[in-house]
Amino acid sequence: MPRKNSPEADRPSTKRRLAGYLASRQPERITEAVWLEVRADLSPVSDSYLRDLLQATQIPFDQPWAGIRQHTLEELESSLRGMLEVYLAAEAAGDRERARYARRQVIAAKDRARFTSRNPRCSPEKRAVKEEMVQWMLVWLENPAVFAAWVEARKRLQARV
């Protein structure tokens, strides 16, 4: 908490600063350029908090800046497929930093899902879904190029059960 007479005490909240940024710039999409600019303008702000604030605006979001959404398996699949495109394009272009960024997003999402899957306060159903999500992300991390084929096979197998 900022002290009463400190410069931070007079500074608007991150949410308000983001609202001002969006009102003045009115981006149609959250692209790399917008992501980098808004992150710099709102600094210091964590990527995860900024991502949450931007996703709440419903403005379309490019990968890898959108991160991995995992409220449902469908949302996770869409996020992982989008991140796969970014990852493979970065690898092909020799952009190791972008490829590492994409992997870090998947690793962080996997860690969040694993934490929830082990939380005894969550329902058994939610823990089971998060365990499944962890498996999907582990496959993506182990061999991103096979993920798309693997997830299709996995969904067909699940439909039979």
Mean pLDDT, as a whole number? 92
Q: Which percent range fits the helix content?
A: 55-70%
Number of helices: 7
Distance between the ends: 52 Å
Uncertain stretches: none
Residue share in β-strands: under 5%
Structural class: mainly alpha
Please tell me what the overall shape is: globular
Largest sheet: none
User: What gyration radius follows from the Cα positions, in whole Å?
Assistant: 18 Å
H/E element sequence: HHHHHHH
DSSP strand count = 0
Integer tally of domains: 2
Question: Could you describe the 3D structure shown?
Answer:
By secondary structure, the protein is mainly alpha-helical. The protein folds into two domains: 7-56, no CATH class; 73-160, no CATH class. The chain contains seven helices and no strands. It has helices at 14-25, 32-42, 47-56, 73-93, 96-117, 124-142, 147-160. The chain starts with 13 loop residues before the first helix and ends with a helix.
